[in-house]
Amino acid sequence: MEALQTKMPETGEVRRVLAIKILEEQFLRKHLIDVRPSTNLGAQSKLIYLSLMLAKTRTSMDEGTITQVMRSVELFL
User: Fold this and answer.
1) Full-model pTM
2) How high is the pLDDT of residue 40?
3) I want to staple 73 with a disulfide (CB 3.0 to 4.6 A). Which of 19, 40, 43, 52 is the partner?
4) Residue 15 to residue 51: CA distance in whole angstroms
5) What is the Cα–Cα distance from 61 to 46, expressed in whole angstroms?
């Protein structure tokens, strides 16, 4: 989101679109963290997707969130 902010002119419409994108990303992240895969493939997909999302957005998770993610896939580790 920060990269988009620096590349686009500051207008009300741009701020509105960015705010929507930020909310969408937060919703998807929370949903992905909360989901409990029922298969090995689902667990692998969750971990890969989370890893790619964190790398792409250059963000991280706190220790509690990491613990929650690992517990959700521990059956398949």
Assistant:
1) 0.70
2) 96
3) 43
4) 27
5) 14
**Domain coordinates of the chain in residue numbers?**
25-74
Q: In what helix (H) or strand (E) does residue 43 lie, and over which residues does it extend?
A: helix 40-57
Helix, strand or coil for residue 61? coil
Look at residue 2 in the predicted model and tell me its pLDDT.
58
70/77 Cα distance (integer angstroms): 9
- pLDDT at 18 (0 to 100): 81
* Cβ neighbours of residue 50 closer than 8 Å, sequence gap 6 or more: 32, 33, 69
Question: Which residues, including other chains, have CB under 8 Å from residue 57's CB and lie 6 or more apart?
Answer: 1, 25
Q: How many CA atoms lie within 13 A of 77 on its CB side?
A: 8
For 15-68, write each residue's pLDDT tens digit. Answer: 788 888 888 988 988 999 999 999 999 999 999 999 998 898 888 899 999 999
Which residues lie below 8 Å from residue 52, measured CB to CB, with a gap of 6+? none
